[in-house]
């Protein structure tokens, strides 16, 4: 429960496609499309491709405007998927590290791009378009959008929003004695989510929902929605570029993110943190589209 009230269990070994990653063979001049998926329980990742410039072409399965990640650093939280195009512009025979430096002081080499000795496949990098056709998602109507605030609360050092929170100061540790460690708008849904909890909010089918997700905690949370892809509008008041549609939105401590979607999919849907330890300890809710 102590871990669940903090970062969750990040583990100590990262595998790629189920195996310990080592050399990833590539050839100079080739263009590679990588679909990166963070399947970890709690570990965030921030990948750098030494000597290379990945271009993001899709996030969570939704094409976006092709763009390079800020500082060349690809941040991937649990459940996030990012498609990148990578032009192999290294020299034949060279090796380039793929590193993960998400956690301060804990950076490591995940794998190595290992070039064969073959001559480059082509003399110049490809000029061809990397933009993918967009999916037919309904466009949110922001003028008529129904605002809904989603406040993430709890965890260690969270500022006392939950009963007993504030464990670092010698008070009760959140999550101990079977209490939930986290809450959304003051309510905690724990276990497998079938707790019979009433929906946090209800949307009319076809209405545009505008979610304002506010992270009051001292921890990172990849918030994952079922049934919909959300258009990211702003982060901490600044507009989000590249028209990114996501079903998993990572919030840094104290972040506020605004997103919108058209509620065209009837049913009861989950909205939860995808750090499984957080979800099971209360960072989960349900909403209804009817
Ligand atoms: Cu979380």
**Top CATH class of the domain at 142-289:** Mainly Beta
CA-atom Rg in angstroms: 21 Å
Distance linking N and C termini: 36 Å
Indicate the CATH architecture of the domain at 142-289: Sandwich
Largest sheet: 7 strands, mixed
Q: Write down how many β-strands occur, each being a DSSP E stretch of 2 or more residues.
A: 21
User: Helix amount, in percent?
Assistant: under 10%
Question: What average pLDDT do the residues reach?
Answer: 90
**Helix count, per DSSP?**
1
What is the 3D shape?
Answer: globular
- Quick one: CATH superfamily of the domain at 142-289? Cupredoxins -  blue copper proteins
- Name the hetero compounds present: copper (II) ion
Task: Please identify the structural class as seen in this structure.
Answer: mainly beta
Oligomer: single chain
Low-confidence stretches: 164-172
List keywords for this structure.
290 residues, Immunoglobulin-like, five-stranded mixed sheet, globular, binds copper (II) ion
